[in-house]
Every structure is written in structure tokens, then in C-alpha cells.
Specification:
This protein is of the alpha+beta class and about 625 residues long. It is built from 13 helices and 31 strands.
């Protein structure tokens, strides 16, 4: 639990040259210690074990329940690959890509997005001509299709084949993600994030180093019609401190749990802790109180845990398809207003995975532009737990909100902060929006000792996994007062009203005021935010209504700026305020060569007539 749930994934590559590099570079990063095996449907566990053991080069194996794959740890990669490729009963053999620490398995299904619906006949003709199977249209993302590699070919090469077609926007395998995980109420006196009195029970912190939630409750405790989707490992929907605020959920993994976890390991309590932070029932003489206790939780199960044979700690498992479905279901089917996502992906593997998580980027973009009838859903994401000077994906995206972790002494959580917790620290730096409490957070846990603790509550939920729902709860309080606000407005109100604490240098300035490298715009303050909301003048979601987009984001050398207006001008500024690029844009998609730009975050300023809007693009290599 002490590591943020971090998933292995990559950039959305929009241009052919970027794709070409990615679809070549991966070959140097194939893991030689493991293989991904798919057996014929109906093969028993005993038969699978016999086939594996007959190889003579597998020292351990683990069957995954969803998707139905087997991970084999091998002693001789080449020999094992040849054996399984010809073994009776095996339908598909594939490989993992690694950066030396994180792994992503290349499965037998993949995604293809066409540039326009009119190209669908060309896609289907190619599938028939080359015997590539059938394509299923995605429910939430226009022009995106899910396909199965029926020829037992290298799925990466199958995707590369599609990139030769002018009508193909992108193609990407559905990677198997091998993640790191990127919390009159009797326990209220432990909840320093809501009201910090500096007591020993609260970790001997600094009095008032909190989000002033107790004061904000004098204005609002939330709206019972407001829905916060917790996209996580599932939520204990029958927990007595949550049940009154739980709405019907969804199992994007496909096990039909309706958002309930599969409590096999302590870590399965992760989502229940996140839900309690946001909306545990207040004043019910039980447990804790959530930040927005009158709001409702939509539980969405988007990953589960498995213990690989020979490993000591369980790992969360998910895929690109699962996360895209979870986000799409949240805004479309459930009508969620806010999404809380305590997960993310490390950047180190990004350059090596061809095609990457393009469908998840698409799902995020669609949620931002179409959620809440076009106002967009604020999507809060954990910034990461590696004490690194840059937030992880997708928290760093322009359309998401990156939340870092603060201590009960108003410091950035770091190895030397006052909390005495031994996990590293919250990721920080350019792209961090703001921070929220993320150490020793008391919250709900799976009942009956099936989560982190031996009872129904856990007193030390932590990490940016805890900071993210804390901030999302404050976002819900603000949205209660300003339901007219766009997704960007919610971000702006929390950023502009945050407390600039910690003694850090808040000398940098952007559209939301001063910010620091350590805490972004500061530590979230619920009381200031709800008062600020009354006087805040909402802005149009210009990136939605003017239709301009920057993708992929993060980008490699090239990115695209798409506008739906003529006579637009783009300026790029580095975070020191220096002009890095200036050019006119045509209506439609404009390819931008960023190869001469140093790696880092840039502010994108778009001028259309007298209207000026800003966004961000992150250049990675």
C-alpha cells in the first residue's frame, strides 16, 4: 500500500514518425525472463501445468483470472519461445517489454482508430483481405475499434502494419499492465486532514496544517445528487459507513462484481479507503466522516491483485481496455460528475511501448469534453509516489488534475518529513496542480479484516493515493456550490484558493497564481475554496468549445495542435516565461515539430481573435 498504484504504459503517438520510432525501439527492451501464454479455450489447469512443465525451462508460472493468460518465468527465453509456439494446446505466445524495472505484456488484442467514420469500409476491407479477423466498435470513443490478433502473429507488428494506411490515426496493443501501487464520528479526532489540532493521535503535526474541512462544512457538506466515481480496485459497497452513499457500480475488469473488490489480499482495501476519504457518512456515530459526506460514490473496479508465483507481494493487474472502459462508463453510463483515480504510470517505460495507451488518452479526452453535458468531468489523479521531480502519467495531462501529497506539518511528503512514514515521497515539479494530505489518513476498510487492517477501518492509509481523494472531495464541495463550473473551473478554483504553505518558493506564476516546485499551487483549503466559489467567474471550457487540442501529451518530438477556427496563433512558453515557439495555425490538425525543444513542460497559449486560452504540453524523450 505504501507505493502509489503505478501502472505500466505509454504515450499516445499521433504522428507516423513518432510511431515508427516506437515500433522499432521496443525490440531492444524485450524481457528475457518471462513469457505470456494463452491456452486453448477449455484447457484444464492440470493440462496447462503439464504443458508448462514439459518445457523444461519454466521455473514458475501464474494463471491470471482476467484476462485468461499465464505468466511463465523462464530460464531460457529462446528455447521457451520456440517450445510454446509449437506446443499443442497453446493458442498464443507473446512477450513482455521492460525498462529494467517495470513490465508490460503484449497481448493478442489491439486497438485501431480511423481518422473518420467514412473510412470504416476501408478498415473492414483490410481485415477481410488480410484475414485479420473482425473489428468491434468502441462504445464510448468514436472511430475506435477493438480487434483480436487471430493469426498468432506479433501484435506489435500487426499494429505497425496498420500505420501504413493513411486512414489510420493510431494503432496500439492492449498491454497487460504490471503495476506498482501508482485514506458525534468516534474516529474524527484522527482525521487531521479535516481538522489538525497537532495532537499525538494525529501524528504531532502542526496545528491548522489541514484542509479546513470542518469550516467548509458550515457552508456545505455536498450535494446528494453529485456523483464521484472511484476508479480503483473496487469498494466495499456494504460498509456501514459508506452504504448510505453508495450508488450502483461497475466492474470494468469483467467479473460482474458491480464495483465490489475481490478481497484476496490486504491491498484490495485500496478503493474502499479512497471512497471513505471522499464520502463516508457524517454524524452517524460510526467511524469517520468523508470530506464531502452528503455526496454519492460510484464504485468502479478497474484493477485487481494477484500474487505471482515466487513473489512476496501481490501486484495489481489491469489493461488499457479496462481503464478506457472504466472512464467511459463513469461519465456516460453512470453520469459521474467527478472521477477520483489513485493510479498512474511510470515514465521510464514510455519510450519503449509502441502505440501505448492511446485508448485511455482518448477516454480521458472524451470525458473532459463530453462529460456533464459538455462542461467536462474533473479527473483527479495521483501524482506518483517515487519522490520524483515530475508527476506521472496521466496526472500530467492537460485534461487531468495532478495531486501531490502533503504531511501534517504542511511539507511535501518526502523521506525526511515529519510524518515518520518510510515511503519515499510524492512526485512533484512541473505539471503538479496542487497537493493534499497524504500520510496517516484514517479511512474505511473492507469489513471483517479483509483489507489493510483487522477491523472495518484503517488508520494509516497514505501516499498520493490518499491525497487524490482528499482533493476530489474538496472538488465535490466546490461543484455543489457551482454546478455551472467546467472541469477547468473546478481545477482553477482549488488552485487559486490553495494555501501557499511549507516555506517553499512560490515565485513562479501562471493563470492560477503563484506556484512552487514542491506543492504546485499549494495545499488544498476546502474552506477558502467554497468561499472563493461564490465570487468566481466561470469561464467557458475553451479547449472544448473552441475545439482545440494538443496531442499526444506527453509528446516525443512531434505533437499536433488541432483547432476548429481560422487565423489562430500559437505561442509556447517554457516555465521561466521565455517564448520557445510562435506560429500561425490553420483550421484542423497542425503538426508541430518540437524536436528542438528541451525536455520539459511548456505552456501553450492559443489566440483566436481577442480570445486567449492556455494549456500545457509535456515534451519527453
Amino acid at each position: 500500500m505504501k507505493k502509489l498504484f503505478t501502472l505500466i504504459a505509454v504515450l499516445l503517438c499521433a504522428l507516423t514518425i513518432t510511431y515508427a520510432n516506437a515500433f522499432t525501439n521496443y525490440k531492444d527492451h524485450v524481457a528475457k525472463d518471462r513469457l505470456l501464454i494463452m491456452f486453448n479455450e477449455g484447457t484444464t489447469a492440470e493440462s496447462k501445468a503439464e504443458i508448462i512443465n514439459a518445457s523444461g525451462v519454466v521455473n514458475s508460472f501464474t494463471h491470471l483470472p482476467t484476462p485468461h493468460l499465464t505468466i511463465c518465468m523462464v530460464t531460457d527465453y529462446e528455447q521457451a519461445s520456440k517450445y510454446f509456439a509449437s506446443a499443442t494446446g497453446v493458442s498464443f505466445v507473446s512477450f513482455f517489454i521492460t525498462d529494467g524495472q517495470h513490465y508490460a505484456g503484449v497481448m493478442n488484442d489491439y486497438f485501431v482508430k480511423i481518422a473518420d467514420k467514412s473510412f470504416e469500409p476501408l478498415l473492414r476491407a483490410k481485415l477481410e483481405r488480410e484475414h485479420l479477423g473482425t473489428a468491434t466498435a468502441d462504445k464510448y470513443i468514436p472511430n475506435l475499434y477493438h480487434l483480436i490478433n487471430t493469426q498468432s502473429l506479433n501484435t506489435v507488428e500487426v499494429c505497425a502494419n496498420f500505420l501504413n494506411e493513411g486512414w489510420c490515426s493510431y494503432a496500439a496493443p492492449n498491454y497487460l499492465l504490471n503495476p506498482e501501487v501508482c485514506s458525534n464520528d468516534p474516529l474524527y479526532n484522527r482525521q487531521w486532514a479535516l481538522e489538525n489540532n497537532g495532537t499525538s493521535l494525529q501524528g504531532n503535526g502542526t496545528a491548522d496544517a489541514d484542509m479546513d474541512v470542518d469550516s467548509a462544512w458550515m457552508i456545505t457538506t455536498g450535494d446528494p445528487n453529485l456523483k464521484i466515481a472511484v476508479v480503483d480496485a473496487g469498494v466495499d459497497t456494504l460498509h456501514p459507513d459508506l452504504v448510505a452513499n453508495i450508488l450502483p457500480g461497475h466492474d470494468a475488469v469483467g467479473d460482474s462484481t458491480d464495483g465490489y473488490p475481490t478481497p484476496n489480499y490486504a491491498n484490495d482495501g485500496h478503493g474502499t479507503c479512497c471512497a471513505g476519504i471522499i464520502a463516508a457518512v457524517k454524524d452517524n456515530n460510526a467511524g469517520i466522516a468523508g470530506v464531502a459526506p452528503s455526496c454519492k460514490i460510484v464504485p468502479i473496479r478497474s484493477f485487481y491483485y494477484v500474487l505471482l508465483q515466487g513473489a512476496s507481494d501481490p501486484l495489481p493487474v489491469s489493461t488499457a481496455a479496462i481503464f478506457a472502459d472504466a472512464i467511459g462508463w463513469a461519465w456516460s453510463d453512470a453520469g459521474a460528475d467527478i472521477l477520483s483515480n489513485s493510479w498512474g504510470l511510470p515514465d521510464t517505460l514510455i519510450p519503449f511501448l509502441p502505440g501505448g495507451m492511446a485508448p485511455v488518452d482518448d477516454a480521458i479526452h472524451t470525458c473532459f469534453t463530453q462529460g456533464r453535458n459538455g462542461k467536462g468531468c474533473p479527473m483527479f489523479f495521483s501524482s506518483g509516489n517515487d519522490d520524483a521531480p515530475e508527476p506521472i502519467w496521466p496526472s500530467k495531462l492537460t485534461e487531468t488534475i495532478a495531486v501531490g501529497a502533503s504531511s501534517m506539518c504542511d511539507e511535501r511528503k518526502n523521506p525526511n518529513d515529519c510524518s515518520s512514514e518510510n515511503w519515499w515521497g510524492g512526485d512533484y515539479g512541473n505539471g503538479l496542480d496542487f497537493s493534499a494530505p497524504g500520510v496517516k489518513i484514517a479511512s474505511t476498510d473492507i469489513r471483517g479484516g479483509k483489507g489493510f487492517s483487522n477491523n472495518d477501518y484503517y488508520y494509516s492509509f497514505n501516499g498520493t493515493s490518499a491525497a487524490c481523494p482528499n482533493a476530489a472531495g474538496v472538488g465535490a464541495l466546490v461543484m455543489t456550490l457551482r454546478p455551472d463550473a467546467s472541469a477547468d473551473d473546478i481545477r482553477n478554483m482549488l488552485a487559486q484558493s490553495a494555501d501557499r504553505v511549507g516555506g517553499y518558493n512560490y515565485g513562479s506564476v501562471d493563470g492560477n497564481g503563484t506556484y512552487s516546485f514542491e506543492l504546485g499551487h499549494g495545499r488544498v483549503n476546502a474552506n477558502r475554496a467554497v468561499h472563493f466559489a461564490f465570487d468566481y467567474s466561470t469561464t467557458k471550457n475553451e479547449r472544448t468549445e473552441n475545439g482545440w487540442q494538443v496531442f499526444p501529451n506527453p509528446a516525443n518530438n512531434y505533437f499536433t495542435v488541432k483547432v476548429q477556427a481560422a487565423n489562430a496563433e500559437m505561442k509556447l512558453f517554457d516555465l521561466a516565461g521565455r517564448l520557445a515557439m510562435q506560429r500561425k495555425l490553420d483550421m484542423g490538425a497542425n503538426s508541430v515539430d518540437g524536436s528542438a525543444l528541451p525536455v520539459g513542460m511548456y505552456v501553450v497559449q492559443l489566440t483566436i481573435g481577442s480570445n486567449v486560452t492556455t494549456g500545457k504540453v509535456n515534451i519527453l524523450r
